[in-house]
Amino acid sequence: MTATTQPDEQGEGMARVLGWASLALAVPQLVTPKKVLRLAGVHPGTASASLVRLVGVRELGAAAGLLSKPKQGAWLWARVAGDAMDLALLGRALRGAGTSPRRLTPATAAVVGITALDIVAGLQRNRAAKAEGATATTRARSAVTVNRPRAEVYKFWRQFENLPQFMHHLEAVDEHADGRSHWKAKAPFGRTVEWDAEIVEDIPEQHIAWRALPGSDVDNRGVVGFRDAPGGRGTEVLVELAFEPPGGPLGAVAAKLFGEHPDQQIADDLRRFKQIMETGEIVVSDASRDGTKTLNQVRQRDAQPGEAR
Amino acid sequence: MKANCWMGINRVEVREVDDPKILNRRDAVVRVTSTAICGSDLHLYDGYVPTMEKGDILGHEFMGEVVEVGSGVDNLREGDRVVVPFPIACGACLMCEKGLYAACENSNPNAGMAEKLFGHPSAGIFGYSHLTGGYAGGQAEYVRVPFADVGPLKIESDLTDEQVLFLSDILPTGYMGAEFCDIKPGDVIAVWGAGPVGLFAMVSAHLLGASQVIAIDRFDYRLEMAREKAGAETINYDQVDVNEALKDMTGGRGPDACIDAVGLEAHHGFAPIHAYDRVKQAARMETERAHALRQAITCCRNGGIVSVIGVYGGMVDKFPMGAVVNRGLTIKAGQCHVHRYMRPLLERIEKGEIDPTFVITHRLPLAEAAHGYQIFKKKQEDCVKVVLSA
Asked: Per the CB < 8 Å rule, is B53 touching A287?
């Protein structure tokens, strides 16, 4: 199971500079966190010192990412997320006791400046990637073994109208007589996207490949393979999906930050597929009665009976 | 309905909550008549199992009367008296087909979460954190039972609740612990932990033909029960060195198999070592205090079997792998595949070969669950097993 976002080709200079800056920041944060705090105007308690160390670890990660893969815009957007976190922490410190607003305000101004710089660099990177015609194709891949005969598993999948039963992003698929189909899906942040798709290849009981037709809201394609698991263990199902995330690379990173991780999603989709094929229903617990989509697994409600949200 | 809810570390509270409903075709709703507090509930109570949410209904040992069945359940009907196994199993996946019900591939709706911690997801369990599915438990007046056509065992004889309740967990768990030991004539079996599961492992070891059973604990009242009710010889690890004592009792060989019926909150007779693990556990540098497991491994005879039925949930530190490899030990472990033991053990109860009621020391109404947790945790009033009636 792997998902990759592959943008960009050039304009890495800024990313490198920011990488070195991250490294330069990380060292004092890790070695002398209390001095960093005093400099920023915060009274250095033990808890805040370890928080500064954590921020240092994060900066080290950003430095490693930016310096080793300056082409990957995602690292710049990770820095922006880090900046937002720093601003939140400084905001909290401003309200706390033992802080010196005289120093804290310039520190906050500096972080605001850095944030602006990071956003500019991130946007530059995205524009450069677009200009090169590079895309931010997100790929997701996952496999599951279904304890049912291959013919049965293939048949259920081939009926695309069944897919929304277990693929949580899909709202509906309508198949037309000419072999084409119309797909309607939920996109991040409450949007709906639609597209028409055609079957590229269909080898019964082995392989189905499909792709969206030009002019779709979301350019995407998918392939599913079926083969016998050894020793009569049912059918191995391997799915690969590729799509251009709405909002480009920035959209992909933002979606991940909000729990819409494509790997996890396709893995969860396949688990629901397996449940339907093997048990005839999608398993549900009291804590998961709003559905088992990825976000609900992250934000659990209590294990008590009650109405779905 | 009333239900016993986890409200934070060391806090449970019987609260008024919504009644459960049928959510899937293969569900049933059971009116709970008897339920018990399990030693592993204490791991939740003490806060050592991650992914608990305030308000979670606890309880995975329960039985009662079927009050409603979904359209996909054809083997149960209203009024049936059933004991419900604690792992939730679909009965159709490869693991269920192999009889490994506690490793069911379909019953955990939070599989994605469990996969991150364990590599592959584990099965759903009633009232046992969100890692095992986030199912409401059975320390309540009513409970929804998924895959009700697979799990619940119908009790058609006039056996009392107390005689059959423990088929839901601790009796099969203890039995599986003994079965793991692959007992041959002449075998000596040592059991760490003389709590309810350990006691049932001792009884089962005798049933499976062990020549000698040795119980290891630090509470005299529990060791006394092991001697009197489970035919065990005993070692109090607060008073003697366990390895030396076991060598003395086995002509220097060590036990043929060692059962860990303690799990992740083991106590250590030697204070500094106990303190070391407590500190590491508190700092989340390890999640388990595995003294009993370490000792079971080092005490086991060469080529012997270490059977782990105590609960672990994360990472063990200082694991004596050298002893395992160099002395050719076999480790067998698992949450109990309760479904496959229920019927044969019910038959043994019916024939009078096992009377599981001997472990019960306290009978309380559900409303007093919090008191039950307290005395069970603190080992007050010589508490061994608390049964709650709803």
From this structure: yes
